[in-house]
Amino acid sequence: MLLDKGADVNAQGGMFGNALQAASSRDHDQVVQMLLDKGADVNAQGGMYGNALQAASLTNHDQVVQMLLDKGADVNAQGGRYGNALQAASLTDHDQVVPMLLDKGAEVNAQGGGYGNALQAASLTGHDQVVQMLLDKGADTKGRMSTLKTKGRMSTLNVEGMATLCMQHH
């Protein structure tokens, strides 16, 4: 195997930034464990998702998320397209991953990424269970409005209105 022949477990490059992020995004739990055992940096930044935890959170790989958290992944690390792991999980309605991240101290009102924050992401995509989880943890509905760039147009998102509308349809 390449790692046994001296390949750098933390080599950077490509779409995923590093091998750990690539394996995490595809739910290859055995590969993730092997990379972690060989010293992969659980908080390495780069690639389209920002880091391995964001990749696993976006793609709803709860077992991989737990493995990364157990190895010390920074639940509030910023970067990548989705800003942080909580925003990534909230965008894609992962009602198993969201509570895992919140229980590990994910900042519910963290700003950043393409959707502004986790509540905006969950509200925009209509994920009422995730919206309720975030509200229960103190998500700010009166916070900043986010301007999203969608298909070349700019649109403003009223977080309070979106969260309310989402919850009314539940």
UniProtKB/TrEMBL annotation:
Pfam families: Ank, Ank_2. SUPFAM superfamilies: Ankyrin repeat. Keywords: ANK repeat, Repeat. Gene3D superfamilies: Ankyrin repeat-containing domain. ANK repeats lie at residues 18-47, 51-80. This is Ankyrin repeat domain containing protein. It comes from Lasallia pustulata.
